[in-house]
Amino acid sequence: MHKSVLSEEALEYLKCEDKKVILDCTVGGGGHSEEILKRLPPGGRLVGIDADTKALETAEANLKVFKGAFVLAHANFRDFDSVLRKLEIDRVDGMLFDLGISSFQLEDPERGFSFARSGSLDMRMDTTGAKPLWEVLKRMDEKTLAGIIRDLGEERFWRRIAKAIVSQEKKAQIRDSAELAALIRSSVRYSRASRIDPATRTFQALRIYINDELGALKEALNKASAFLSPDARIVVISFHSLEDRIVKHTFREQAKQGALEILTKKPVMAGEAEKVQNPRSRSAKLRAARSIKD
Ligand SMILES: C[S@@+](CC[C@H](N)C(=O)[O-])C[C@H]1O[C@@H](n2cnc3c(N)ncnc32)[C@H](O)[C@@H]1O
Q1: Residues 206-238: pLDDT tens digits?
Q2: For the domain with range 7-104+213-291, which CATH number is right: 3.10.450.50, 3.40.50.300, 3.40.50.150, 1.10.3720.10?
């Protein structure tokens, strides 16, 4: 099961009740989309995008009671403009981004996202394109890998971990997520009492890298305001400080240009009850803005 994060808050900012078209850029299993569809007025439509075809199948099944009110599209959200163009939609009244991966993806051993289980070391959200992580990793030099682990994982043992991975790759290719996690654990000194697994940050860094998550977010946010109708809302839920920084800066830049009004001076975080019920929400930050141009 995937529990949607900051759902009430996202819906409050999206204000779907009087909107015509909402674009959910990260439809996943359809958790937020379902809540949006419940609130849209008669005639309202939801367009849902996901890079993951399996997620779209799940969403299609979960949203079937709303048949006719939604359209799903397989795409990277950096290309949301092409999706809208194909549907002959010029502007939307709301846009939602709930970044990262879902629990469905994390728990699927075929995807290799989790350091806690054995599976193919793939880590692509879109398995129809580009190369899986194991294939990229075998060609990566130590300097590049170290930089990724340091910058995208903010991992203090970046040097040691990169060295261990590259030297293992020379002996035998790493094809399994559990094997990579074990290698990382054996390359750093850590206390067994530590709450966080030593492989956490490296796995996060590699996932962000292989999917170019920061590049896609920048590209999508930079063009978003051109596709918002007046008073449309844009809501972004992020789970990583680098993502939140991109959201904050892009909103500020577009507010300076007179395109957006920022609705959240500080990011909205999950309350204690949600944090207990849904551990994924602990690092979540929500920022929202409103389109103020004609
Ligand atoms: C956190 S989940 C969304 C969960 C959903 N909001 C819900 O409540 O059920 C994020 C989803 O976004 C998708 N995703 C992440 N980055 C993407 C991108 N650049 N383009 C398209 N889909 C993306 C992932 O495949 C995943 O299914």
Answers
A1: 999 999 999 999 999 999 999 999 999 999 999
A2: 3.40.50.150
